[in-house]
């Protein structure tokens, strides 16, 4: 796997680059990512970012095979296939074929072909105890952590001592923090053949659904429909996952960054016959191609800039038709480098609010067309901010009104928002008020 990634980098330096995004818990093995995009050496690019990953679970080798398959297709067909070329030119694609190199080592050595976890030394004895050590990496993310997996170290689904205790999981989190993926497919496989050939997406939570549910469902349904199953009598199934399945990558990425994140259970079991691997990957790749094409066809994209300086702003962007309060999911922010936010919503008209402290709120309706990407730039106007010692004169001069419309006769002693005469918000921050 390591050789293959470096081989691609050497052969296609103009479109891919190998990154080390972290190191494993026990053996300090590098966790490698292959980035595929035009100008891969330019770190920050204003393109939709996508993450594919494999082998959170040590024995689920198809995840690694799938990432390598995608990498090979995107690079080798770049110059011959115009669709592939458009993926590479206009998207920023990240592949992490092996999130769990330590655990995979155990399966490779033949010590336990069904091994799932990493190799955290749970009892600190310096030995590898396959009956006690290791954390299930896909239960270690910080979303409803306490509800996920098991708290028994010897359990196959041990969630770890605390969220993000494992460096492998931190590596994915830190990459996501930088890249704010709009899409993630995590490739897995299930030991139980009846549970295979499925795609899970976020989420159902008790009796309610994720705010983007309709949009994620539409995307996942079509992704799954594009993948023919092993028996040739149907396709993969698309199923909503539960939020209460704590500590999962897909739920965390959706919760924290708004990433449309899926878990794709490939095939029906861990180890398909060697001669089948290519066909399995080829079929899943049809689904992957659909996803990438869909993103290039249309999505919501807004840039937020400061009206005075023209500089990008990190601001909250609410889509009122797909909004949930911060108790459920974190606010969706533009990235601070480009001031950009993207979301794969269905074509249609949406009501948007852009908010940032110290700036006037902007509300507008936006159309997401069916077959092109409409780029919208919003300028936020800084509110009048009076910061410093608070004196009567300032109020008199500004003629402030409180939010109920009453004129402030005596100066207010609290920090807060008031109206000026022009009905413009004035945000007052009092530092060390003087009577
Ligand atoms: Zn898995």
TrEMBL record:
<keyword id="KW-0862">Zinc</keyword>
<feature type="domain" description="Peptidase M14">
    <location>
        <begin position="1"/>
        <end position="295"/>
    </location>
</feature>
<keyword id="KW-0479">Metal-binding</keyword>
<dbReference type="InterPro" id="IPR000834">
    <property type="entry name" value="Peptidase_M14"/>
</dbReference>
<comment type="similarity">
    <text>Belongs to the peptidase M14 family.</text>
</comment>
<protein>
    <recommendedName>
        <fullName>Peptidase M14 domain-containing protein</fullName>
    </recommendedName>
</protein>
<dbReference type="Pfam" id="PF00246">
    <property type="entry name" value="Peptidase_M14"/>
</dbReference>
<keyword id="KW-0482">Metalloprotease</keyword>
<keyword id="KW-0378">Hydrolase</keyword>
<dbReference type="InterPro" id="IPR057246">
    <property type="entry name" value="CARBOXYPEPT_ZN_1"/>
</dbReference>
<dbReference type="GO" id="GO:0005615">
    <property type="term" value="C:extracellular space"/>
</dbReference>
<dbReference type="GO" id="GO:0004181">
    <property type="term" value="F:metallocarboxypeptidase activity"/>
</dbReference>
<keyword id="KW-0645">Protease</keyword>
<dbReference type="GO" id="GO:0008270">
    <property type="term" value="F:zinc ion binding"/>
</dbReference>
<dbReference type="GO" id="GO:0006508">
    <property type="term" value="P:proteolysis"/>
</dbReference>
<feature type="active site" description="Proton donor/acceptor">
    <location>
        <position position="265"/>
    </location>
</feature>
């Amino acid at each position: 796997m390591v050789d293959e990634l470096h081989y691609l980098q050497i052969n296609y330096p103009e479109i891919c680059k190998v990154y080390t995004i972290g190191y494993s818990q026990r053996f300090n093995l590098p966790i490698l990512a292959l980035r595929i995009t035009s100008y891969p050496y330019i770190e920050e690019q204003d393109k939709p970012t996508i993450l594919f990953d494999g082998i959170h679970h040590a024995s689920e080798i198809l995840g690694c095979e799938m990432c390598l398959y995608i990498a090979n297709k995107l690079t080798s067909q770049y110059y011959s296939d115009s669709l592939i070329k458009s993926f590479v030119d206009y998207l920023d694609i990240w592949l992490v074929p092996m999130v769990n190199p330590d655990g995979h080592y155990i399966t490779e050595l033949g010590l336990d072909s069904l091994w799932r976890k990493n190799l955290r030394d749970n009892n600190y004895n310096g030995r590898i105890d396959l009956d006690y050590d290791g954390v299930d990496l896909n239960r270690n993310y910080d979303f409803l952590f306490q509800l996920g997996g098991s708290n028994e170290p010897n359990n196959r689904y041990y969630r770890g001592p605390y969220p993000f205790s494992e460096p492998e999981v931190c590596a994915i989190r830190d990459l996501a923090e930088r890249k704010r993926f709009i899409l993630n497919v995590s490739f897995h496989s299930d030991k139980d053949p009846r549970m295979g050939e499925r795609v899970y997406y976020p989420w159902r939570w008790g009796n309610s659904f994720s705010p983007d549910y309709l949009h994620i469902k539409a995307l996942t349904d079509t992704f799954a429909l594009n993948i023919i199953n092993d028996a040739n009598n149907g396709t993969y199934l698309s199923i909503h996952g539960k939020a209460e399945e704590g500590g999962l990558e897909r739920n965390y990425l959706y919760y924290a960054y708004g990433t449309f994140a899926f878990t794709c259970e490939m095939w029906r079991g861990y180890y398909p016959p060697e001669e089948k691997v290519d066909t399995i990957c080829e079929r899943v790749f049809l689904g992957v191609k659909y996803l990438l094409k869909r993103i290039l066809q249309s999505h919501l994209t807004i840039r937020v800039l400061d009206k005075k300086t023209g500089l990008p702003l990190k601001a909250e962007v609410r889509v009122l038709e797909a909004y949930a309060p911060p108790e459920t999911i974190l606010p969706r922010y533009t990235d601070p480098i480009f001031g950009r936010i993207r979301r794969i919503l269905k074509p249609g008209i949406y009501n948007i609010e852009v908010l940032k402290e110290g700036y006037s709120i902007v509300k507008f309706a936006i159309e997401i067309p069916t077959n092109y990407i409409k780029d919208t730039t919003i300028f936020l106007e800084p509110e009048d901010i009076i910061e410093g010692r608070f004196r009567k004169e300032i109020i008199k001069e500004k003629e402030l009104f409180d939010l109920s419309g009453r004129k402030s006769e005596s100066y207010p002693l609290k920090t807060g928002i008031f109206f000026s005469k022009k009905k413009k918000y004035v945000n007052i921050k009092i530092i060390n008020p003087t009577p």
